[in-house]
């Protein structure tokens, strides 16, 4: 997708408003130019001392043009800005929907992504208000001025047309060409500044601990200085465009005046038409004066849209499908068969490196199954497939015979939930953190689920702080489990539930997690040997495949005590 094809797709549904706003803007501009031309005629005619009756029509028309200009400008703002804001809303919806659907968050740094979502998305508004509307208005009103000048004196009209083409087409085109690279550099500079600021704010404690705050602040200052230099170059180009337009306007007006005076001396043009011709030319150049800035702004808009294209064109990691026949079961057995998975990215045919290959795994209803493996072996990728953050390349994931890859992600996540390795807690109350999973849950239900996960001491109105700073690591995991249980899932996936916990807290958290998850199929992804004795079965993930302890059968069976020597 090219930047302009993206722009067309966004503006197409709002074409009526854009065209209406542009025509109203052209009408307002034409009324302004007409006022100047009519004023020239009125003053020149009044100098000849005609009767008041001869001037009365011009006086009334002057009032009409003045009122019409104000009304048309207000209507242009109303219609044009409405179309621009609606187009901006459409673009935001597309960007946010794509982020939710394809998980491109993984492919960009957080500060860079924020810059694209805010500044580059907002450039759609400038595309209409500061790009399309001034160009259309200048084109329509400028053509009218040329026709009037030609009707008055053909050589004067031809000279005005040539001057307007230079000031309204050639100079803006040059400004757009010269602004293209600075606009791209400005976008990169904004990315760097946003990324440096996010790194500085999010990594503040670590930077202080390692004495690296100064370097982080220097990185922010360097990025800010680069953005300032780019803005100065852009301002210089805008000044060059405005100066060039003024030069062309001055030369054209001087030439028009000389031609007109010569024509008056030759008797080919009257004094009154000469005054109208000169002031019409002056009004015409006022019409095209904003075009160099509009062209430069369009170059910046193009650069912003070009930076949104990779976000919108990000290859989907999950195919969204229609709901299948009948609801998924609220309890059941999980079966993984022949699972092959890879994250989108570099690789043969752009398919990325295969992380899992031919994986078989079973978690029966009411079972606790542990999955162990070295870092990078694909445990989190398996969890992503179960959560429908990633579709399998081959194989299947079934819940009581229902293929989860053929169901919408939201439907799957209603029956497969869990606790990530580093659960995110929002800077709000306990109640609002829980209601992310169940917006309609009442306080009694929320209090009960807190009790089930061992957080009876927390009040629903307690503030948890930024990133859960007011909670311990174990409490954050318990709160995340409470959120997962509010969904009432059939399968519960616990990713490193005991990471960074001391032994006493670890044992207490495990007891509460497993007690709260009773009756569900539970998959525990862990490095902690203390978890393994609590599992009914242990799988080892190695060389992209899952391996069972020697002598263990694949598939659900009666729970048995875990024997550490059998783990490979």
Automatic annotation (TrEMBL):
Protein name: Thiol reductant ABC exporter subunit CydC
Entry annotated with the keyword Transmembrane: yes
Domain ABC transporter: 334-568
Regions crossing the membrane: 21-44, 50-68, 132-153, 159-178, 237-262, 268-289
SUPFAM superfamilies on file: ABC transporter transmembrane region (SSF90123), P-loop containing nucleoside triphosphate hydrolases (SSF52540)
Subcellular location: Cell membrane
Keyword vocabulary terms for this entry: ATP-binding, Membrane, Nucleotide-binding, Transmembrane, Transmembrane helix
Membrane topology, record value: Multi-pass membrane protein
Domain ABC transmembrane type-1: 19-300
Keyword hit for Membrane: yes
Gene: cydC
């Amino acid at each position: 997708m090219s930047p302009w094809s993206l722009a067309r797709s966004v503006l197409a549904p709002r074409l009526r408003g854009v065209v209406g706003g542009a025509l109203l803007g052209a009408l307002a501009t034409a009324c302004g130019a007409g006022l100047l031309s009519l004023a020239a005629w009125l003053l020149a005619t009044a100098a000849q001392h005609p009767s008041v009756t001869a001037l009365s029509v011009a006086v009334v028309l002057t009032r009409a043009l003045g009122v019409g200009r104000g009304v048309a400008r207000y209507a242009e703002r109303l219609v044009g800005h409405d179309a621009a804001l609606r187009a901006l809303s459409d673009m935001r919806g597309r960007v946010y929907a794509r982020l939710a659907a394809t998980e491109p968050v993984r492919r960009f740094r957080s500060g860079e992504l924020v810059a694209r979502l805010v500044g580059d998305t907002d450039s759609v508004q400038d595309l209409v208000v500061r790009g399309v509307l001034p160009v259309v208005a200048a084109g329509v009103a400028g053509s009218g001025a040329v026709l009037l000048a030609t009707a008055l004196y053909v050589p004067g009209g031809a000279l005005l047309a040539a001057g307007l083409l230079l000031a309204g087409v050639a100079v803006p085109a040059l400004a757009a060409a010269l602004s293209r690279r600075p606009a791209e550099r400005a976008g990169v500079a904004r990315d760097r500044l946003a990324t440096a600021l996010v790194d500085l704010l999010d990594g503040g404690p670590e930077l202080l601990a390692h004495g690296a705050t100064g370097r982080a602040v220097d990185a922010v200052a360097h990025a800010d200085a680069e953005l300032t230099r780019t803005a100065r170059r852009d301002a210089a180009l805008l000044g060059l465009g405005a100066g060039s337009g003024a030069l062309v306007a001055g030369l054209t007006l001087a030439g028009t005046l000389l031609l007109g005076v010569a024509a008056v001396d030759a008797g080919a043009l009257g004094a009154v038409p000469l005054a109208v011709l000169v002031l019409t030319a002056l009004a015409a150049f006022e019409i095209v004066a904003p075009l160099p800035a509009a062209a430069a702004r369009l170059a910046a808009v193009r650069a912003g849209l070009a930076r949104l294209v990779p976000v919108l064109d990000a290859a989907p990691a999950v195919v969204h499908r229609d709901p299948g026949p009948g609801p998924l079961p609220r309890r059941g057995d999980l079966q993984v068969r022949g699972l092959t998975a890879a994250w989108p990215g570099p690789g043969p045919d752009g398919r990325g490196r295969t992380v899992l290959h031919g994986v078989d795994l079973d978690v029966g209803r009411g079972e606790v199954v542990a999955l162990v493996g070295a870092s990078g072996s694909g445990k989190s990728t398996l969890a992503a497939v179960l959560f429908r953050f990633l579709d399998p390349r081959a194989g299947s994931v079934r819940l009581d015979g229902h293929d989860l890859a053929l169901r919408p992600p939201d439907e799957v996540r209603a029956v497969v939930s869990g606790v990530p390795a580093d659960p995110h807690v929002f800077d709000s109350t306990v109640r609002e953190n829980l209601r992310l999973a169940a917006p309609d849950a009442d306080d009694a239900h929320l209090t009960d689920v807190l009790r089930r996960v061992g957080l009876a001491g927390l009040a629903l109105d307690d503030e948890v702080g930024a990133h859960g700073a007011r909670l311990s690591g174990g409490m954050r995991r318990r709160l995340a489990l409470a959120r997962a249980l509010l969904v009432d899932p059939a399968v519960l996936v616990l990713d490193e539930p005991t990471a960074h916990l001391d032994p006493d807290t670890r044992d207490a958290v495990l007891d509460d997690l497993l007690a709260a998850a009773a009756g569900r199929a539970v998959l525990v992804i862990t490095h902690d040997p203390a978890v393994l004795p609590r599992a009914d079965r242990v799988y080892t993930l190695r060389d992209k495949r899952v391996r069972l302890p020697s002598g263990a059968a694949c598939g659900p069976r009666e729970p048995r005590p875990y024997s550490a020597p059998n783990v490979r």
